[in-house]
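Notes taken during the Thursday session

The instructor put the following on the board and asked us to keep it in front of us for the whole hour. The protein is Threonine/homoserine exporter RhtA. We were told not to look anything up and to reason only from what is written here. First, the residues (305 in total):
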Amino acid sequence: MNSLLLFFAAVFWGGNYVVGGVLVKSVNPMLLSELRWLFTALLLLVIYRSAFRQNLSLLWGSRRSVTALAILGQVLFPLTLYIGLQYTSSLNAAVYMSATPCVVLTINRLVFRDRITSSNVVGVLISTLGVIYLLFKGNLLDLERVSASVNRGDLWAIGSALSWALYCSFLRVKDGRISGYAFVTASSIIGALIMLPICALFYLFASDSTLGQDLTSLFSRVDVTAGLIYLVLFPSWLSYLFWNRGIMALGATKGEIFTHVIPLSGGLMSILFLNVEVGMYHLVSALCILGGIYLCSIKKARVEK
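Then, after some discussion, the predicted structure tokens were revealed:
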């Protein structure tokens, strides 16, 4: 069950890369991030108001760790991603995201002294091979083409991936007594509050756009509004709820392998909705990614028995 939660969370985030990549062509990343978490916070306050009230004392007692996690997961991760998607492809950004298990393994080993098993290593290596194969489109020796295409968007996307790795690694410091509903609600509220002054400062000094123009552009188009609704319901609400539950149950090292589902699902959505051409390298990459996840899962099942 926990593996399924992580799988669907990753699929929804895969859609975030595709939808976000489309939206940043019409909406400023600062405004997009602020509206995403503002509407998510309002939605969750309505749905989980009882759980949020019951956990207020626990949330306040853990305010430092909850705020730090919100900065990593709700502010830095999506904001740097949306900025990066202005200059690089959603596929590139998703591929960088899938490299985070290596970072998580390193953080968990250095900071938390976790034991790294052979199954962890094999699973990550096989699925990472699939990511690399996808990045190079099957041409593993064609290094010049990839190095020439790296731009500031790629750097922002790498920053987003690093933020996510830190979020997953340090999620364990959250007080286990805080319910997932209350935690996601509080994180959304903190994300919206932190993004508010950032967004305000941007429009205060921006010379090429105004808040009124961007809001009009956002809500006057049905497709853009629908994209924002998707970001609120799936990547912001359900993904974080599912991911937090799965990571708390399985651990960051075992759970982070499901990050590799993000470029796979993002690639499939790009094919379905953006008419991206399908190549043999997509299929080979998918097999490697799924194979790596399977090896990690089967090893865990044996240990539990």
